[in-house]
Design goal:
The protein is mainly alpha-helical. The chain is built from 5 helices and 3 strands; from the N terminus they run H-E-H-H-H-E-E-H. Helix 3 runs antiparallel to helix 4 and helix 4 packs across helix 5.
Length: 176
């Protein structure tokens, strides 16, 4: 065998051996974990309180909408009963009032939905930030390379070697 070929084979062998050892060493230093953020959020007392506050606000808005709808229904029923006896001018005026009230209800419904969405965001954002901070702290304190959130379904597979850090984060949050 020619000397150059021997050196090439030996160099290739050493390179492959080095790369194998290097990738093995890198794999041993990586630490993966997984968590279910929805489970965490469901167990937080702040989440329950936020949901109660949101429901209370939604109920207030629903009651206002019901009052407005009841008023519209009452006026419409009265209008139908009196319609035949009304002059054209009074009839047109009452129809315009009904249309205006119906439009105000539609605008109220749109604004109420927007207000509820904004309130939900304002109530939930600090809770999500708290959980995110706790996850990051657990990751740093326990030398995790990655912690995957199973609730987002962004991880298709996780092995049994992946540590479930939910208990550690619950401990950090004080919800064991």
């Amino acid at each position: 065998m020619n000397t150059r070929l021997k050196y090439a084979l030996i160099s290739t062998f050493l390179l492959v051996l080095t790369m194998t050892n290097l990738s093995s060493a890198v794999a041993q230093t990586l630490k993966f974990g997984h968590i279910n953020s929805q489970e965490l959020l469901a167990n937080l007392p702040e989440r329950t309180k936020a949901e109660q506050d949101l429901q209370k606000h939604a109920t207030l808005l629903e009651n206002q909408q019901k009052t407005m709808s009841d008023e519209l229904n009452k006026k419409y029923t009265e209008y139908l009963q009196e319609k035949e006896q009304l002059s054209d001018l009074v009839r047109a005026t009452r129809e315009k009032e009904l249309q205006d009230l119906q439009q105000r209800i539609a605008i109220f419904n749109q604004q109420a939905m927007k207000e509820l969405e904004e309130k939900e965001q304002a109530l939930i954002s600090p809770i999500i930030e708290k959980v995110t901070t706790a996850i990051k702290e657990v990751g740093k304190e326990n030398n995790f390379t990655y912690i995957f959130d199973l609730a987002t379904r962004s991880v298709v597979y996780h092995s049994e070697q992946s540590e479930d850090v939910t208990a550690l984060v619950k401990k950090k949050l004080g919800i064991l």
